[in-house]
Design goal:
about 425 residues, alpha+beta, 2 domains, five-stranded antiparallel β-sheet, three-stranded mixed β-sheet
Length: about 425
């Protein structure tokens, strides 16, 4: 049509064809050929390497995880992109919001993996996810301030059921000493005051529970509150008789407490709740949550990509159809569900399929985020390809996985290309 000779056209196409052949065609051909040879590459292995795809436990786990990735990651990312795109049309600062949501796309997978490895850190003082989770948990269930407290030598307390009880029954009018040790001075509650010996009260059981430890050798008297020792504020004390709690109270800031006459003749118990370990959040990178956690980081990166493409589709949508639906009495939800989504169906399909192709090849996030103890549980095909080829020295099996991945991607790519061509014809 342009009058250009075939030889000139071929000359201009030659560099692209050379690069395509060197970087795409040759690696594919070599991988297919290598997949039929053994570990050394000298002996013909037939389909043994492909048989390993369905018999090797690591590959089967990776295949199952890839199914989870393909089902959930593109679906959630596309849904979030749709919601963001629709809502930002009505927000005054919609452009700024889109910029913030799209910004993770400028970060490499390696950097995102390092970021989320820190986000999912088990220590709430380091990991943002557990810091938020622990904060919400502690809002409704306060953690104990004395998880390490325990009786010292010659203590009147003995262990029972995760807590501690007195060896003997207590009597009204006789103050009780409940000394404990094991709480570092710098982690004592802020409201703790100097411990004092409780005064006797007729008809009532009184006592003191405190940190019976004074820094410095030879300083302080065991079993007696000393001037530098602090009480255990909020420590719960229960009076137990015949296995039933007949009275209970909490210690004051100086460690003193008072129980009614019903406690006379009972044993005092410091229940296990006083010594519960602080809630430390969820093990985000443990075997059960590592895959959903990594998928969450992927969605954080790619929801902006979906939003931008869907927003472009929204911009080209005929507004008269939306207005006509509103004039006919449809509410906003009905307009969204019955008009907006059907009109955006081709764009949504392209976005979802593109993300499917992308998640089939996901490697960086899983390799960086999953710790060594959970990497087997978070395994995906691309990571297993790397492990088989470089860590285990089985290039034949690795090549078979590469071919298998190619076979999985080709139908999805073909569907995407076909849909794009159909849209161009329209």
């Amino acid at each position: 049509m342009t009058g250009t000779r075939r030889s000139v056209a071929a000359l201009f196409l030659l560099p692209a064809l050379v690069l395509l052949g060197a970087l795409v065609v040759y690696p594919i051909g070599y991988s297919v050929a290598r997949s039929f040879y053994d570990q050394s590459g000298d002996g013909f292995a037939g389909v043994d390497n492909y048989r390993a795809l369905f018999t090797d436990d690591g590959i089967r786990t990776a295949l199952g995880n890839n199914v989870i990735w393909v089902v959930f990651a593109p679906t959630v990312a596309t849904a979030l992109g749709l919601i963001f795109a629709v809502l930002t049309e009505r927000v005054r600062w919609g452009t700024a919001f889109k910029l913030v949501v799209f910004m993770p796309m400028a970060i490499s997978m390696l950097a995102a993996g390092i970021i989320f490895r820190l986000v999912y850190d088990q220590d709430p003082d380091k990991g943002v996810a557990n810091a938020v989770w622990v904060g919400v948990h502690d809002t409704f269930a306060a953690s104990s301030a004395f998880p390490k407290a325990h009786p010292g030598r010659d203590s009147p307390l003995v262990a029972e059921g995760g807590g501690f009880v007195t060896r003997e029954a207590v009597r009204a009018g006789d103050p009780v000493a409940l000394p404990l040790v094991g709480v570092a001075p710098d982690v004592m509650p802020d409201g703790a005051k100097r411990a004092v010996a409780a005064a006797a009260e007729p008809g009532k059981v009184t006592g003191t529970t405190w940190q019976d430890f004074t820094r410095g050798k030879g300083v302080g008297t065991p079993g007696t509150p000393d001037p530098s020792e602090l009480g255990y504020p909020g420590m719960r004390i229960e009076a137990v008789r015949d296995g039933k709690v007949v009275a209970s109270t909490e210690a004051a800031a100086d460690g003193t407490f008072t129980l009614p006459a019903a406690a006379d003749g009972a044993r005092l118990r410091l229940p296990a709740g006083n010594f519960a370990e602080p809630y430390n959040g969820l093990d985000w990178l443990g075997p059960s949550l590592v895959t959903p956690a990594i998928i969450g980081s992927y969605i954080w990166m790619w929801a902006g990509f979906a939003m931008v493409l869907i927003a472009a589709g929204l911009a080209g949508m005929p507004r008269e159809l939306l207005e006509a639906a509103r004039v006919d009495g449809a509410n906003e939800w009905q307009v969204f569900r019955r008009v907006t989504v059907p009109l955006l169906a081709p764009v949504l399909a392209v976005v979802a399929v593109t993300l499917m192709i992308n998640v089939l090849k996901v490697f960086d996030l899983v390799f960086i985020i999953a710790p060594g103890s959970s990497q087997d549980d978070a395994n995906v095909l691309a990571l297993e390809l790397y492990r088989k080829g470089f860590s285990e020295g089985r290039p034949g099996v690795a090549s078979a996985i590469a071919v298998f991945l190619l076979l999985l991607v080709i139908p999805v790519m073909w569907f995407n290309v076909r849909r794009l061509r159909r849209e161009v014809r329209r």
